[in-house]
Structures are given as C-alpha cells and as structure tokens.
Design a protein that fits this description.
The structure is a single chain. The protein is of the alpha/beta class. The protein is built from seven helices and seven strands, in the order βαβαβαβαβαβααβ. The chain has one domain: NAD(P)-binding Rossmann-like Domain (Rossmann fold, 3-Layer(aba) Sandwich), CATH 3.40.50. Helices cover 36% and strands 12% of the residues. A seven-stranded parallel sheet has the order 3-2-1-4-5-6-7, sandwiched between helices. Helix 5 links the parallel strand 5 and strand 6. The longest helix has 29 residues. The chain is globular. The relative contact order is 0.16. Bound molecules: beta-D-glucopyranose. Beta-D-glucopyranose binds next to loops.
Length: 300
Amino acid sequence: MTELAATGLDTTGSAASPAPEPSASEPASPSLPAQRILAGQRALVTGANSGIGRAVAIALGQAGADVVVNYVDGVEAADAVVDEIRRFGVDSIAYQADVSSEEQVGAMFERMVQQFGTIDILVNNAGLQRDAAFHEMTLAQWNTVLQVNLTGQFLCARAAIREFLRRGVVPSVSCAAGKIICMSSVHQQIPWAGRANYAASKGGIKLLMESLAQEVAPRRIRVNAIAPGAIRTPINMAAWETQEAYDKLMKLIPYDRIGEPEDIARAAVWLASDHSDYVVGTTLFVDGGMTLYPGFATGG
Ligand code: BGC
C-alpha cells in the first residue's frame, strides 16, 4: 500500500520526506528563469507541503502570486514552503485543512479571503494512494481515495467558484474571473491494476473538470487539468529509488527521464496565467510520453 500522497497530502500522520536529488548522470529537468506573470494574483494550493504541490506553490510565488499553502499533516514542511515563497516578496500563509471535510474547506476559504481579499487561482492538488489488489481492497481504502482525490476537488472547486462568481473579472489582475487547475494523472487514461480506487478517482477528475469547465466558461472562469506521469516524489519512491526500479520505469517513458516536480510547476504557472487565456477544459499531459503506448515503439 502506498501511504504517501500522490501530490503532496499525507493523511497518515507522517510528514512526507523530501525526494532525493537526481544523480548527475541522469538527464535533468531544465532550470529556467521565472517571469512574474502572476503578479497581484492570489492562489491556493492544496497538499502543498510536499511533492508536486510544494513545487507548484513555490513556482506560483516566484511568478508573483500570494499563496495559501494547504496541508493536512506536516506543519514544519508547510512552514518551510511558506518561508521559501515569502523570499520572492509575496505573502504566504500555511493553512491546515482536510480537503474532504466540507467544514474545514469552508473555514480555509474564509481565512484566505480574510487574509488576501479574494482568490484568483485554485490548484486542486491534494491526493493520495491506498493501493490493494481489488479482491482485497477495503471499503476504507476505496473511500479514503475517493474522498480526498475527488470529493476534495469538488469541495475546493465549489468554494473557489462561489468567490469567482461573487467578484467577477478584475481586468487589472487577469482577463479571467478565476482559474482552477485540477491535478489529475496519466491514470485518468491508463488503467492501473492494483489501484482501481486511484484510477477511478482520476477518471472522475477528468469529467468533473470538463463538466465544470463547460458550465463556468461563460462566466470567464477557466478550469483545466494537468496529468502528470511519473514524477520524483515520495508517493512513488519504490519506482525510482533503486537503479533497477528506475531502469524498469524508463521502459514506460519514451523521453527517458523521470519527471521532476518543477516540470509540473512550470505547466501550472502557465495554465494559471493569462498566457493560456484561451485554454479551457483541457488536460495537459506532462508525462515524458508515458501515454504514447511506449510498448509499441518496438512491437505491435
Ligand atoms: C501516481 C504515481 C505513478 C504515476 C505514473 C501517478 O499518478 O501517483 O505513483 O508513478 O502516476 O504511473
């Protein structure tokens, strides 16, 4: 069973440990200069104290946004992310809330509006895995994954949409009344044995995102998703921590390197910015080609 969060959130109570650095011999994710394309905007990232959520929160801050760093366990890690974000001269606070709790999500948005006045960008990132063979999967494993990964995205998106609708477009801030980015996975498309709960939650995110995007686009609200492939985070450590595991993983990735959280963060900054203003209801796959049926490169 994978205990750690897919995208930052760990509901088990143990703080997620940071992923080791890539080795010098591996091809690297590029390091690019940041532009302040989100200056004056206010963002909330769920599950932002580790993994992909952490990198996204930092990148949004670097791009000029004030950022709420949501977490459920691991306050020290959340505070460290806040400190890093503040170094960019923007405001940031950590906020503990379980995204699957309607009450806690409501309180989190109230606090955000109190602190920053409103919300412009929601990154629905918190997620986790509870892997099990289907015939052994408990209802608790099923429910935990669906509640955090899918219901959590519903609750946070609903709260954000309410605020976007209340406030409307402020042209000096953004051409849109608000942006939501749903963190999905290649497993919204690729079936995954032993993880039926996780794949079902990601498939659910796909049509939640698309239906919501269609519904609120006329109100100038943009809803999109990112589908990461294998990204070097605590959730899939078993798939990359040994050379043997890494080599096996590479058979699934045409681009021949693992993804880094920053690969996802750069996509999130773009999707949150007016640079992607005409992008509505799209899933951006950031997966090194994992969804290209790599087995067919030599077979078929
Ligand atoms: C999962 C990871 C996995 C990756 C590619 C992600 O959504 O959380 O555990 O490595 O998909 O299979």
